[in-house]
Amino acid sequence: MRWLLLLAALWGSESWSRSEPLTPLKEANYLSLPDSHDIDQYLFSLAADNKQARMVALGHSAGGRPLYGLLISASPAFLQHYQPDTDKATVLVLAAQHGNEPAGAEAVQQLASEFVAGRHLALLERLNLVLVAMANPDGRDLARRHNANNDNTNIDYVAMNAGETRLLVNALNTFDPDLVYDAHESGIWKRVLTRQQGWLTDVEVQFEAGNNPNIDARLQDYTSGFLLPALIKQVNETGLRAERYRGEITSLEQRVARGGLGITNLRNYAAMQGRVSVLVESRLDNKGGDYVTPRNIAERVSKQYLALFSLLQLAAEDSERLITVSRQARQHWQAAGSGRMLSMDVHFARNEAQPEVSIPLVRQADGQRRYHVFANHDAIIAREPVSLPPAYAITRERERMARWLQRHHIRFTTVRAPQVVHAGYIRITDVIPQPRVKPGVREKWRVQADTQAGVATLGPGDLLVPMDQPLGPLAALMLDPRSANALYQEEGWHWLMPGHFPVFPVSPDGEF
């Protein structure tokens, strides 16, 4: 395959073999995966006495394992003080949020070794890198998807229950990246599709970008209109089949879309902050296959490496436009102030222009590749527009809500004395459970509500969350009970019931 020849050219030169220490996985001849400690030690060895690299502690996992970021930059100000450059894009790469998807972490180590050995200097002229090889070290060492507390950190970006999620959100705030890249693997063996129906998914590399319709329009146009198509094209030109993400195919009878719209995942959460955000899902081969290396790990790492390196090349080549779009998006909402419209009801629906889509699968019995027709539900529906108010008031569980806001780095004030405000009271009239499309999908609720203008007296301890901040729209989508992405959809926050809701818009002049 052409992409393997390209990687051989990138990895196989004599100068490379003399100057770059082998990753722990290569040292083990691909026969055993290194644990989190071995990977940390390897990355520390790369950064030692290297003026363009620095290891930074991010915190500790639920199981007490350290999380680190490896900074690689030609800018001393960024390495020491995380100061962004006006002419360099900052790229945050996260791998292995799911501990049983290890190839991304191995690709990050490989790339890191090349950078600190002095390769790819042209990229460092335009990029500052923050590489988090193991976003979930517990899962890595325990060989499972979740952390030591059984939290799925990958879908925790609203509730922020897991310490690891909070550390990664802190990293977004600390390093202020223009581009966020989230590396995953997608298993080709599925419980229903494979065991009961006899088919494997046919994944090589799939990409998706932030797609929630409330994302800054210019940012979304850049990511979906240019960067994502260019990335898919570039990877395809190497001979590795790349395509737009279609989500997990788990049954022949299911509907397909193209990646969830919710801000519980990093992709949409980061994009709602005004950051270019890209997800990769590469092929996680079946355990029962016959491969040159265990579970085809060498080839899986190669695919992840090629996907990541291709994105960095594009980001460097288009860094000026990427910087402009991303940084303007992070200031756009604050400059716009209140009055901007948000869609509270966002979901996928049947694509009437293309009601069916053919997706390749592989028959397990004989390995034949066939196309199957699925109902195409990739049309994005944005309904129930709400004007962004000047602020939201919070009158329930205020200390708990304050901690939650702080974890998101959302600015708020605490009322010290009784304060009269104009209120846009939200009265919930009905709470309707939504059908589960796939087994294991969390239960969601659709809220029916009406609003009524009035006057409220806020008491000491109540909270006010102003919307004239860069995170204003993100905060609104999590605070407003009418939102499909509201905090109250998350476990432990079940506040949704008929009656007046304790979180509501407020305005100094009564305009909403």
UniProtKB/TrEMBL annotation:
<keyword id="KW-0645">Protease</keyword>
<feature type="active site" description="Proton donor/acceptor">
    <location>
        <position position="281"/>
    </location>
</feature>
<keyword id="KW-0862">Zinc</keyword>
<comment type="similarity">
    <text>Belongs to the peptidase M14 family.</text>
</comment>
<dbReference type="Pfam" id="PF00246">
    <property type="entry name" value="Peptidase_M14"/>
</dbReference>
<keyword id="KW-0378">Hydrolase</keyword>
<dbReference type="GO" id="GO:0004180">
    <property type="term" value="F:carboxypeptidase activity"/>
</dbReference>
<dbReference type="InterPro" id="IPR000834">
    <property type="entry name" value="Peptidase_M14"/>
</dbReference>
<protein>
    <submittedName>
        <fullName>Zinc carboxypeptidase</fullName>
    </submittedName>
</protein>
<keyword id="KW-0121">Carboxypeptidase</keyword>
<feature type="domain" description="Peptidase M14">
    <location>
        <begin position="29"/>
        <end position="315"/>
    </location>
</feature>
<keyword id="KW-0482">Metalloprotease</keyword>
